[in-house]
Amino acid sequence: xxxxxxxxxxxxxxxxxxxxxxxxxxxxxxxxxxxxxxxxxxxxxxxxxxxxxxxxxxxxxxxxxxxxxxxxxxxxxxxxxxxxxxxxxxxxxxxxxxxxxxxxxxxxxxxxxxxxxxxxxxxxxxxxxxxxxxxxxxxxxxxxxxxxxxxxxxxxxxxxxxxxxxxxxxxxxxxxxxxxxxxxxxxxxxxxxxxxxxxxxxxxxxxxxxxxxxxxxxxxxxxxxxxxxxxxxxxxxxxxxxxxxxxxxxxxxxxxxxxxxxxxxxxxxxxxxxxxxxxxxxxxxxxxxxxxxxxxxxxxxxxxxxxxxxxxxxxxxxxxxxxxxxxxxxxxxxxxxxxxxxxxxxxxxxxxxxxxxxxxxxxxxxxxxxxxxxxxxxxxxxxxxxxxxxxxxxxxxxxxxxxxxxxxxxxxxxxxxxxxxxxxxxxxxxxxxxxxxxxxxxxxxxxxxxxxxxxxxxxxxx
Length: 462
What we know:
This protein is an alpha/beta fold and 462 residues long.
């Protein structure tokens, strides 16, 4: 399970820049303007062999009197509660401020690993940049330059290394993990109870009944697998009972550990932005995916047509995901839903022979040749499998890296359809270069060598 690291600090100290550097994206807005980030942002970082969840937060003004400042402080507090460790980002150029000291005092009260990252320290000796921030009493500060990537490896080592990997409570369970994700109260626990045939999980009309991920051993059609029920919300003691926050960290962790994901949506509520965000997380992490539209039995025919149109419009970014209309309460459609999740897992792990891949590539090129880029025809020559979960297909050619995105999607769809891969994304990696197997002789077996010599003798006689 991935640990989570929260980035906190005053406004405009570079938290979002550090978030973008760690995650390798530009998901967080960055500008020279205080208070640009207000909500939490989540991403997955991979530095060397370490992977972890990063939470970007808004600038924390401990004595803020405005309503926005209070809301930002609440978001930061939630992020700290969700995280396994916290990085306090400070600004070397601004020096140690009273606000930094107040935030450090708040962090000392938390039972968390805390590191101080002294940002904007480029071109300055480490001991000079870090000197005055020892006074925060949070251990040895680490000088970094988030914009240029300096000091990032040391920061990650300091923060992530002490985080012991949590024990896997499902280690003794058999089969692939199928994570059930969704917004609060869409029927995740009801679905699992229906599958196992008992009230294994506590259910309630009140959103937020599930607090932690629960692993349940299941068997369908002779195949054993583990269903993972994820919490839709998380409550905290200091937050009003009427204010409930969705635990993105737990969903990210469940998706990361899963072999296949069932995204459960509420047909009566329609498809919300939160639904598309959750499905986007699974798609981004390359997980096999099926979508279940729950509470389908209570809709009129007109309402059903409206939901179907909305699915076509809003879920077009995951064309590989099969859609199932189910009722977790009554059990209709859930057998097919789970069966599709297991088929998707098998497709994600498929081993594909190189000759088959090259035949599919040849057919796709014949049906729709690559476009001309900068006056030159892109030529794709060879393909082989580069990985599984999800399938990775490496395609070689000249100017391959210049292939337009729409043609790359065409190749993904062509491989998926021709190879009958269901419920899994297909990753295409384009490389410019020659066939890596060109010039390599195939070593013949003794029998093949004998047959070859015999064929040559008959050829010479003719």
